[in-house]
Specification:
Shape: globular
CATH architecture: 3-Layer(aba) Sandwich
Structural class: alpha/beta
Order of helices and strands: HHEHEHEHEHEEEEEHHHH
Distance between the termini: 37 Å
CATH superfamily: Type I PLP-dependent aspartate aminotransferase-like (Major domain)
Radius of gyration: 19 Å
Bound molecules: pyridoxal-5'-phosphate
Number of domains: 1
CATH class: Alpha Beta
Oligomer: single chain
Number of strands: 9
Helix content: 25-40%
Largest sheet: 7 strands, mixed
């Protein structure tokens, strides 16, 4: 039997030289020039004004919920088909994950089912762009509930000619090694809301006031991405289009290989089109 790996990490000389440079500077923890460069580079790719780099895609989701002050008694709608993180972070903040069905044509949230689940306790929807397929943001945004877009698996995907990650009040990405663009471990939250971005940075760095070191404005966490991780991530983000194209080639190989299988219910055409940058 042939083993087909989930992914094969492609690190170029760029990532290696940036990582070496970060190591040589001695700035190997969560502060350093590469963290800022990485945040700016991701912000440009996902067309958002602010990006806060963190230690993983799960941390990014956790941070988003903390920033929105979601806690005990609150409900957050999550898709029934996804990785465990969206539901797990809702439990971590003491909330209740409520599972919504997915639409068969995209494997992302079924807006009609989401609508039925909304009540007074609903504080947010985590909309996952599963396997590079974007959610239907036009319909979801009409529901009037705060949207957190989980684009962990969807670097390079587009909806209505805009990159995924630019639709929710905030969006999250993972840069785990199995993602199209990676940094080893790593994640980020992107938003156009500057107040929210400042608050997330505060939480990420122990709640420590940027103006007054060791003065803690809120009870925070250490969610920081390291400078070495950001250096690898920057090299990858600078090769974003190339890496996304390589992932699309793999998808195309699967599409061709599975085309004749009667049990094949994968929504290939829309998925590939969306990842490739066309409107649905
Ligand atoms: C949809 C989704 N959200 C969140 C995550 C969590 O990302 P990380 O593994 O970086 O914590 C993943 C990871 O695969 C994911 O697929």
């Amino acid at each position: 039997m042939m083993r087909v790996p989930l992914c094969q990490v492609q690190l170029s000389d760029k990532e290696i030289s940036y990582a070496e440079d970060a190591l040589n500077t001695g700035w190997i923890s969560g502060t350093g020039a590469y963290v800022e460069k990485f945040e700016r580079a991701v912000a440009a790719k996902v067309e958002c004004e602010r990006v806060v780099a963190v230690s993983s895609g799960t941390t990014a989701l956790h941070l988003a919920l903390l920033a929105l002050d979601i806690g005990p008694g609150d409900e957050v709608i999550v898709p029934a088909l996804t990785f465990v993180s969206p539901a797990a972070v809702v439990k971590h903040v003491g909330g209740r994950p409520v599972f919504a069905d997915i639409a068969p044509d995209s494997w992302t949230l079924d807006t009609d089912h989401v609508r039925q689940l909304i009540n007074d306790r609903t504080k947010a929807i985590i909309a996952v762009d599963l396997l590079g397929h974007s959610c239907d943001y036009e319909k979801l945004s009409r529901l009037g509930v705060t949207l957190i877009e989980d684009a962990a698996q969807a670097h390079g995907a587009r909806y209505r000619n805009k990159p995924v990650g630019s639709f929710g009040r905030m969006s999250t990405f993972s840069f785990h090694a199995n993602k199209a663009v990676c940094s080893g471990e790593g994640g980020c939250v992107a938003t156009n809301d500057h107040e929210l971005a400042d608050h997330m940075r505060l939480i990420t760095n122990h709640g420590m006031s940027p103006q007054r070191p060791y003065w803690h404005d809120v009870v925070g966490h250490n969610f920081r991405m390291t400078n070495v991780t950001a250096a690898i991530g920057l090299g990858q983000v600078e090769r974003w289009e190339q890496l996304v194209a390589a992932r699309n080639q793999v998808a195309e190989a699967y599409r061709q290989g599975l085309a004749d299988q009667p049990c094949n219910r994968v929504p290939w055409p829309s998925g590939l089109t969306r990842r490739a940058g066309c409107t649905p």
